[in-house]
Amino acid sequence: MTEQRPVVQTYTVTGMTCEHCVRAVTEELSALPGVEEVRIDLAGGTVTVTSASPLPVESVRAAVDEAGYEMVGGVA
Predict the structure, then answer these.
(1) What are phi and psi of 34, to 5 degrees?
(2) HSE toward the beta carbon, residue 34, CA cutoff 13 A
(3) Tens digits of per-residue pLDDT, 3-47?
(4) Of 28, 33, 36, 68, which one's alpha carbon is 20 to 30 angstroms from that of 51?
């Protein structure tokens, strides 16, 4: 029996500048099915998402957009 490892994906998101930004993006991404953890690096403008399986890029983009920010490109 093999243990399924979590999937870690990093995205570039523009416009995040403060803790409010972190909370908004974290809340939207955490609502996606399978998301286990969201880590945000404000200085680097990156969002790292750990999930049970790979997330569709368009789902991540829609969640970031709903939070009021813009995801640049796909998985970094």
Answers:
(1) 90, -10
(2) 16
(3) 678 999 999 999 999 999 999 999 999 999 999 999 999 999 999
(4) 68
